[in-house]
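Q: Start with the shorter request: fold the first protein.
A: Done. Sequence, then structure:
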Amino acid sequence: AAWYQQTDTPGLDGDDTAFGLELRLSAPDKFTGNVDYKELQENFNPALGFANRVGIREYSAGVSYTHRPRDRFLRAVSGGPSFSRSERLADGSLQSESLNLSVRFFNNTNDRLTFSCVRQKEGLVDPFTIYRARPPAQDVVIQPGLYEFDSCTGSVQTGSQRKFSAGVTYQSGEFYDGDRVSTRPNFSWRPSAHFSLNLSYQVNDIDVSDGAFTTRLTQFSTEVVFSSTLSWVNLMQWDNGSDTLGINSRLHWVPQAGRDFYLVLNHDLQDLDEDGTFHSVRGDLTAKASYTFRF
């Protein structure tokens, strides 16, 4: 159980309180569950960290049961329902709500199969642009109102301990006042403890009353571990909405516990006319060092 509270944010007068209550139960081979409540007032501004949303009251709860059958192939089956609801403090209106039911199957080599279905509610008080189109096409906008929609998801994933691992996630169902179908395959190659490569591709086909569109997101990452003190991580990401290729490269050196040195490169390239030629739009190189003093 946990209780947290923060009040009197410097520089703000009134409506700057945040508090909550959290209760959790964990029994790895039986039931796990949680009940959470929190309230973030309109002017809450944490000195450290961040708050995703303020001016809200949020409830959440969930329970899951794990069964371990005496089977040579199946290691565990787990699942259960979860619920969350967020309300605006100003008028008590619904901001979002979800009711989810999921079940997961694991075998003895850590392959897993997951099924879930969710019923969602979204209360919009302002128009919400979900797709920005290029002229002369028009943006796709969800109008204010209360929306209720259902969807189901299935995924299969092989164990990451293998040299080659792969998986795919498929989602289909309603989306605001329309429909959405999402597919996300992924692939990983780990030939040794010193190198890994990951590739994923996500396609969302969305059709709502204001228009239809397709989004695509490609992610490619590598990790090179030269030694216990030196590693190099690279991430490249492209999406068809912005036609931007983003590159993040991070070199991390830990000569001794408590001493960390980073060299980070960020670079964005864009191909607005979609002719296969990318142009640099932003780039930066950052160095960071941290040292922990012990006494």
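Q: Next, the second protein, separately.
A: Sequence, then structure:
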Amino acid sequence: TQKINTWNKYHGFLLLQSMFLVIAFQSVLPLIAVVIPSFLFYIIQHWTELKAFRPFAGYANWVTAFRLDIVILLAIFYPSLSLLQIGMLAILIICLDWVDGQLARRFDMSSDFGEYLDMETDSLFVAVICSILYLNGMVGWWLMLIGFLRYIYAIAVFLLGWQNRKAKSTKHATFIAGIFFVAIICPFFLPVLYYLPIVIVGSLLLLFSFAYSFYSLWEAK
């Protein structure tokens, strides 16, 4: 819808700016300071639609909102957590991603609101985990570009005026996203000798996925 597209545009701009703030201040808090009001605005904007669900907002969106809360809390409190605890919370967030999709299909509660909330929660999760890995000195600054690639892509599409074009739907995108999720969790459980090649391969695959999507938009003239 137009409301979602407009929010997505401004949300992307804000999140991309927050990437530079995270690097400049060496803290993930600027990202959270931007994210919380942006997501609150998105929810309030769709309040009337959410009231149409029974129960309010629907079970799937409850799970997605809970997952979003965990991502935000992880970003705020990660300095006081061990690497193992961060990794376990990351696994929980990914598992809940599967749960909300199952609930949406089980109770036939799929919606544009829920789809974008789920997608942007995934994007925030990736941005937060990549920021933590960078700030902890576990992976180089280049991972920040990968972690915020979703927002770079969204802004590029907007600036080129391609927001009304449809990228080709492919099965590999979901598969690659799953591989990347696993790749960025590995550093919390494995020594650098093992996790760094995994993160690099996962990042290259994600770059390929976004490049392919970008190319398909370019073709859709």
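Q: Describe the second briefly.
A: The chain has ten helices and no strands. The CA atoms of residues 83 and 188 lie 5 Å apart.
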